[in-house]
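Nitrate transport permease nrtB
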Amino acid sequence: MPSAKRRKSRRLRAPLRRSQRIAASLATFVVLLALWAAVTETGMVDPLFLPSPSAVAQALVDQATQGVLWSDIGTSVYRITVGYLIAVVMAVPLGVMMGVSEWVLSAIEPLMDFIRYMPVVAFVPLTIIWAGTDDLQKFLIIWMGTFFQLVLLVCDAVMQVPQNLIDFGETLGMKKSRIIMRIVFPSSLPRIWDALRVSLGWAWTWLVVAELVAATSGLGYRITVSQRYFATDVIIGYVVVLGILGLFFDQVMRAIGKRAFKRWEARP
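Tokens:
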């Protein structure tokens, strides 16, 4: 008969050690990089369409040496930080209120559902007319792309709080505001944090869209400029940088969530 250790390893969602998780993640990137190098370094694909990893790395080094890469990263990170925080500060309170009040839910949810199906890209020309091409326009695009989705995700997280916890607070004679702040919000916070992680990815997408269409700086702007000169090595390099930045911020939020909500992570 198989040992207990082997039976445990065959379980669905069996936990891995930290070293195993890191090894599996690195292996995926190594395999993809090797395939990319094999296809490009052997001349199977024209470098104009897909430059080699070494060419992309050299392009990034050139951009970094000139200071352009760091300037573009700083500009985009600033825009994403401000625009995303505005959306979060507005969405979380409204989502919580929707999750605890049927009146607010009935009044606001249809509007959120109606607007969130409108393509944000279609509003880019309007935002340029409304706010010009400065940072305010970028903030507006990020807000439009994340706020309406995030409100509904926060509302869903709050609605998953067990009703018996709320009933317990009412039995103790707690005021509604105190029940929300001491019971509902803390109980739903791990799920709200997950919603924030997901919506941050959307925020990066919409920032790049805004910078591709109307900008004079930033990662998206540099991709547009490179397209005009068929500098595909710079384009792919900047796309890789965007992926690295997104992964970095996602992992930071994941680590913060695991530390802050460790008791919710307990496994049976």
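The CA atoms of residues 80 and 204 lie 7 Å apart.
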